[in-house]
Amino acid sequence: MKMVSKGARILVIDDERQMQKFLQVALTSHGYEVKEAAAGKMGLNEAVIFRPDLIILDLGLPDLDGLEVITQLREWSNTPVIIISARGQDQDKITALDAGADDYLTKPFSIGELLARIRAALRHAVRVSDEPFLELDDLVIDLAHRRVKVKEMEVKLTPTEYDLIKNLALNAGKVLTHKQLLRACWGPAAENDTHYLRVFIGQLRRKIEADPARPKHIITEPGVGYRLL
Amino acid sequence: MSSERRADPDALWESNEKDAQGKLTVFLGAAAGVGKTYAMLEAAREALTEGVDVVAGWVETHGRPETEALLQGIPTVPTRLMEFKGQGFKEMDLDAILARKPELVLVDELAHTNIPGSRHIRRYQDVKELLAAGIDVYTTVNIQHLETLNDVVTKITGVTVRETVPDRILEQMAQIQLVDIRPEELIQRLKDGKVYVPDQADEAMRGFFSSGNINALRELALRYTARRVDRQVESYMRAHGIDGPWPTGERVMVCISSSPFAAQLIRIARRMAEGLQAEWLAVYVDTPRRFPVREEDKDRLAKNLRLAEELGAETLNVTGNDVAEELLDLARKRNVSQIIIGKPLSSRVWEYMHGSVVDKVLRLSEGVSIHVIPGNPKLIKKFQAGQNPVRRPAWKPVLVLPYFASILIMIVLTLLAAPLKDTLGLVNIAMIYLLPVLLSAVWWGTMPSIATAIMAVISFDLFVVPPTLNFTAADLRYGITFVIFVLVALFTSHLSTRLRLQVDNSRRREARVSALYSLSRDIAAVADLEPVIESIVKKVAGIIQGEVVLLLPGKDGKPLLRASSEVGGNNFFNDNEYAVATWVFTQGQRAGKGTGTLGAAEGLYLPLHIDKEVCGVMGIHSGDPGTYFEPEQLRLLEAFASLASMAVTRAQLAEQAMKAKTLAESERLRTALFNSLSHDLRTPLASIVGATSCLLDSDHIYSKESRRDLLLSIRQGTLRMSHFVNNLLDMARLESGLVKPNKDWYDLHDIVGVAVSRLDESLGSRQVNINIEDNLPLVKVDFVLIEQVLVNLLDNAIKYSEPGTKIIIEAKEYEKRIKIAVSDLSPDIPDDDIEKIFDKFYRLHSPRLVSGTGLGLAICKGFVEAHGGRIWAANKKGGGVVMSFTLPLEDELPLKNLEVKGDENGK
Q: Which residues in chain A are closer than 8 Å to B747, comparing Cβ atoms?
């Protein structure tokens, strides 16, 4: 896994010195090439000059709104963006994800979590969409044959349930917001009907999780969405 | 001025005024031209040389060079030019003086009446305001301007002086400096043209300035001053415990009516009360018979009562049937020693019929001196002459209906009675004819009943007594019947009229009392300020049928319009009215329409007093701009105002108490917070600092394992701090009311799962049993908040129960609620603490050394309550503790088109 992302260029847009330092040390030691920018505009410039493979963006910047940075960036670039937010910025976080950010982390976070997110985002960015086969421990999702297996046993899914797990699988490791999932499975008109999601996620979990009360694959991101691991 | 004889100022004792109040020095003269202004200016110059800040506010030199020379060198506040009816008038500029705030101001002519449009009607009111502002005032006045001496002066000189000054202002706050001059000298000065005589015919003045008149006025002035000195000496002796014969407990009562003569009685009573050093009462007895019906009578009565009040009397209004009895009853109750009563104006006949009040009072009085004062016959004649032309055209239009009705009754009665005359007999039929007379007297009053009596006798005689349809000489004997009929009519109508008046009277009183009662009941029931003032304005406006506003001091201390009976437009309260209200607020006296101050205002403004402090202003605007409030209404309004001030003060105090309580509470919490902060932040900090310094200092000393231990302890410390900071943030959000649940539909399984997985690390190998009903509906909650509640509860369970013991999470639906319970096997919570554990910073004393902030459960409570739920703790029977909370299942889940994609794909 590490080999895939070896040498990837990461741009850190954060105004806090300590955070910069910590990220610089941690990421460099893990073989990434790191560039720092202390403000939003500077970050956007660096995104042009440095051409990063991934951007880590703090939502609380002194000059531009983090959301503004994503919107401007997404006008010309698909570089994956991981947001770092403080507690209490839930709504900003969701807006940023809906606006095109790829994942998020809430302060304080461990370096392990960060690395996992970076890997997922990078993998997702390089992967071609026709990669049809996903294996997560005991869960196997075969998109080519529309088949889902748990512990070698095939699981029967309704079309909606399948849609759901397909979308999660295509973005495996990455968070998908409620809105994104609802749009993908039920169409744009249903993007506020979150209760659809609750019901079907519940059904899915009962079918694929060993202990539905303590899920291992379909992970809830409180207030944000779901992630398939 | 050579022969000027002044009363020695040292003989006049300092009055015991408050320090804040300015001192008033009055230069009192017997007549114009004695040199009061001159004396005042001399005294002012003396003060000036002593370094006192003196200004001349208003000095009338009348162009006399000596006086003008004296005025030179005294700083002058320019006068104000006022316009009235197209003409310019100069007036003293009260505001400029108040702004300049000198130590001493000269104000000539205390008795002067100001131009309409000035703040006060009279100059002495200006002077009162100056004194109230702490400015000393020198002023001049002639003896004839004193209110109580007014009629004496008129008697002596024949000239009526209209501009009078209440004695009270001189008595309560003044030092008197008598300016005296021999009469010959005054007459000489008059001849030399040195005396300014205002607007009076020369001859009248010459009559006024006769040697005899001047001497009489001098005597008045000297006696007045002497009496003042006497009183001051006396009060000094009394204050210093010197024995002497004191006039003991005298109390004077004066009986007044709506007669103009009453004013004279009041003045006499005032003089007597003052002579006796006694309190005095002015009493009006309301009887149904004497109740003043006509407007001018009411006005005069009000004026008399006000005069008495102004002269310092306590005024009372008593209702009863018998004037004499009521008077004596009151006299006994109030310990009155002297009664002053006027000699009646009524004729002997009237007295014979109704009995004389004076006679009765004299007869029944025991131990009370009665002074009967004869009225001035000229004045009375003038009054009666003046009354007649008013009374005559004022008769009521005759109502014809009663007359027609009685004619109709007569016809019907005659038609019924005539055929029966033989069976019933004449006497019985005569009795039947008496019936309509009685009824018409009761229903319609005197005149219709007399008319009915006449008709009854005529129809009786014509149609019943034989020979019918004919008058004979023998019918003259029915003259007696006629007289009896008329007498019955008169007595009955008189009695019923009296009864009606009595009923009216008591109804009015009842209305007043019930108005007061209902207001007091309304405002007693509420404790908050806003509803109290709303209720006051609404109620008072309803009772007086007008508009009412209420002003209370704002943050800057200025009065602020807080409530108005009119919602929205059509409000009389504008900037001018606000200025009046402000004046009332600062001065603590009523002003506005119908009062002596700022009478041009549209509304009447009453201060709300509590212990001499003004706590607000009530403005009243009667619906009809032409009417003024009657004294009775005014008194009712005063009563409203005092009720209102009590209510407002009570509400304000309650608010303050509440604030103080909240303050104390937040103080307690702050202390708890500081304690908690210092402990819970310092402990992990200490371990972090210690561990990091070890690692930095000498990395080769520590083995790999110990380095790892150090790093772990750093990590633990930071996690603990992070937890604490999160708790503090949550608490702060709850406290500031920022927690508004961002509700959405969630699966409870999901929330529980996330909460449990968040605690994976601290749970370790512990068994957590999750029993959630399978068919539980989705709940509409804020995921993050409820998850936090579960995490906190689980965290508590982990901390307080033995490691390795089971933790159970249960959820089930009941009664449109979902109940979620977290139970563990921790030791019982003492019964006393079972409620308190949800309080902020409350910690249980656990045998296990549990670290924590005392915030976790308080946050749970806040979050659950923000969802409309309830949280509680209980000890389980078999041991262990259950923490339960409920969440309302408020809405039905909109389960529409859930499965849009159709069948299962397995086929």
A: 198-199, 201-202
